[in-house]
Design brief:
Elements lengths: L15 H10 L1 H4 L4 H12 L9 E5 L5 H9 L4 E6 L2 H7 L7 E4 L12 E7 L8 H11 E12 L5 H8 L13 H9 L4 E14 L2 H11 L15 H11 L8 E13 L3
Parallel strand pairs: 1-2, 1-4, 2-3, 4-5
Antiparallel strand pairs: 5-7, 6-7
Helix pairs in contact: 1-5, 7-10
């Protein structure tokens, strides 16, 4: 386990064992509510250079294997490796195919040899890594010269509507924290890889009510995992306070939930 004191995020990130357990529990329900995850992953795929054909790819944080299968379809002659920290996700994905190998592992300590992949693809996984500099260092180590690390992650400002609504109710941590875009930019610049592209784009989903949003976060395994979160059940008065506060954000399409997504395509120098 990486010491969370090394985190580049003030306040720290969840213990990885909690993250792995939460996503393992969500394996069966994940794909039914993963609209954002599919949209973001497809956006990331579209950002890969058009003439780029890897011989071996790694789906880092592969989850249910949705994008392992997409990568296998796009790069039909390549060998694929799916890696995730959550055993439950790997057990769900393995029978569905896509990758030649399914490995339980940590993005900060990849169980792969040096210079063995031409592509590392990671969609909405590395936001859970406390030491992102180690993620970049490991990606650079495992990539062959000229190889590409393409990742999509979440940054500060994600779910600000939910966070601000909870702040009106109590002072506790109810919404997952994510690092600043500037931190991603600084760490990528210092990684020894060249940024082909790096930008943040908002994705806004709409829900009929607060319960629909919180139910989806739980089904994804992405509900509140932060240190400092409240324990036990949330009282009825606080829930009603949350609903009242969130209603101030309502739009014609419903209650908005904004995700700030960082897209980056990094190249290891020749």
């Amino acid at each position: 386990m990486t010491d969370l004191s090394l985190s580049d995020l003030p306040g720290g990130l969840p213990d990885k064992r909690q993250v792995a357990a939460s996503f393992s529990r969500a394996a069966a329900s994940y794909d039914s509510v993963a609209e954002l995850q599919r949209d973001v992953g497809n956006q990331l795929l579209s950002r890969l250079p058009g003439d780029f054909i890897p011989g071996r790819w790694l789906d880092l944080g592969s989850g249910t294997g949705y994008f392992s299968r997409a990568l296998a379809e796009r790069f039909s002659d390549a060998q694929g490796v799916a890696l995730d920290i959550a055993e439950g996700m790997l057990n769900h994905a393995r029978p569905l195919g896509g990758a030649a190998h399914f490995i339980a592992g940590d993005a900060e300590r990849l169980p792969l040899r040096d210079s063995t992949c031409e592509l590392i693809f990671s969609s909405l996984a590395v936001q859970w890594c406390a030491d992102f500099a180690s993620v970049l260092s490991e990606a650079r180590r495992v990539l062959k010269p000229g190889g590409i690390f393409a990742f999509a992650s979440l940054c500060a400002g994600t779910l600000f509507e939910l966070r601000d609504s909870w702040r009106q109710v109590d002072g506790m941590v109810h919404v997952n924290r994510f690092r600043e875009l500037a931190t991603y930019q600084q760490l990528c610049a210092a990684s020894g890889m060249r940024a082909i592209s790096l930008q943040a784009c908002p994705h806004v989903l709409h829900y009929p009510d607060v319960r629909s949003l919180t139910h989806e976060l739980k089904a994804l395994g992405a509900h509140n995992l932060n240190p400092g979160r409240p324990g036990g059940l949330t009282g009825r008065a606080r829930v009603l306070g949350l609903i009242e506060a969130y209603e101030q954000f309502r739009q014609a399409q419903g209650l908005p939930a904004t995700y700030q997504v960082v897209y980056a395509v990094m190249e290891k120098p020749l």
